[in-house]
Amino acid sequence: MTFLFDVTDNDDILALQPRLTDDDPGVRRIALIELADLEEPDGLLWLVNRLAEDPTEEIRAEAARLLEAWEEEAVVEALCQALTDPSLAVQAAAAQSLSLLKSEAAGRVILPWTGHAEASVRIAAFRALRELRFPDAASAASAALNDADASVRREAVGVLGWLKQLDALTALARLASTDPDTEVRRAATGALGLASDAQVLPALRQALRDGAWQVREEAATTLGKVGHMDAGPALVEALSDDYWQVRLRATRSLGRLRFAPALEALIETLGHRISNLRKEAALALGELNDKGAIAPLQAAQDDGDPEVRKAVRIALSQLQ
């Protein structure tokens, strides 16, 4: 891909141009950086040209990084093209720069790349669109939930979650329950938190019994966000999970729900050997607003961990 350069009368840019094609890669790299520092539109296509045509992958990667602040269509298209560069370093730099774009116009350029044959390109395109929160990406993301590549499915879930696509809840619930990839199930479970609708509870309860603790942890968190008291019993059961990370999130969600029947289980957690769990249990007991928690909290005022003692003080101030 060859770019024609704008004619310029900018002396600083004219002085840099010979160095941009110097035989020494180090000279070319410094010239690129100096050109980017000028922040002159007249020099933009020189940066784009080095991204596309420089023979040294380090220079192409540098050009991709330097183009992160530019929203012009030619730049966005060049960065998308760079996703197919033979160098993984160039691909990564281009993907990073695309993820930092902010304009809707950039989204329109990136969107067609979600259908590229290479999974790595589709992944980068969806990641950039997620950050843009580009509404027109919803259709492509929904279709990509069936992509053969798990990482593409995960990025598509992220797009739908950021866009709060309620009409995707059924498909997200399916992924949370049945996708063979742990990270896809985890992402889909988290995305279900975009709704406060009770329809997501069955899928979240199932996710709370997933074979992967990371999915169970996400489910425990999301159930607190959804905010339905019907989630309480499943969260109380999760306080006995083999992984403390799941217990911690379940504890936090029970406090968030103010689920009164969890009182005894949270009091028991207040004596757990892991201090982070004791801290979350104290905070949750304060949120329950049940006087039955006062005596156990008072007994925990001399806990060996200062963070737990602080949480106990906060909880007692809520109850007294």
TrEMBL record:
SUPFAM superfamilies: ARM repeat. PROSITE patterns: HEAT_REPEAT. It holds the Pfam family HEAT. Transmembrane segments: none annotated. GO terms for molecular function: oxidoreductase activity. It comes from the Bacteria. InterPro entries: ARM-like (IPR011989), ARM-type_fold (IPR016024), HEAT (IPR000357), HEAT_type_2 (IPR021133), PBS_lyase_HEAT (IPR004155). Keywords: Repeat. PANTHER family: DEOXYHYPUSINE HYDROXYLASE, PBS LYASE HEAT-LIKE PROTEIN. Catalyzes the hydroxylation of the N(6)-(4-aminobutyl)-L-lysine intermediate produced by deoxyhypusine synthase/DHPS on a critical lysine of the eukaryotic translation initiation factor 5A/eIF-5A. This is the second step of the post-translational modification of that lysine into an unusual amino acid residue named hypusine. Hypusination is unique to mature eIF-5A factor and is essential for its function. This is HEAT repeat domain-containing protein.
